[in-house]
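call fold(seq) -> tokens
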Amino acid sequence: MKYLPMIFVLGTLFTMAIIGCQQPVGPVLTHKLVVTGNQHAVPMYPDEQTYLHTSHEKQEGGVVGVVGDVKQNLAAKQLDDQTPVQVVTSDDNGAVVTVTDGPMKGATGFVPKQNVD
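ret:
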């Protein structure tokens, strides 16, 4: 009989913990991808190094610039404007994002800074 109050308190705490765990966690801060300039879609590269290498080639112009354009089309996945994403990490060049909704849901890659809102 002397353990009955302690069992009751522990049972109550355990029940509250189970109920608390079933409640959804607060909303995750999401961002959206945005097109800029004359883009029709946002390129998502496999990693930051691929983005840097491709963008430097595109800036050189001439034949090397054309090769950079072709590499972008081959290496980068094209995502629609306003695609919801979650930022994993970011730096001065852009962000590593995970797509949270749409046909590419779950895809992770690097997106240039100007394309993340």
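The mean pLDDT is 84.
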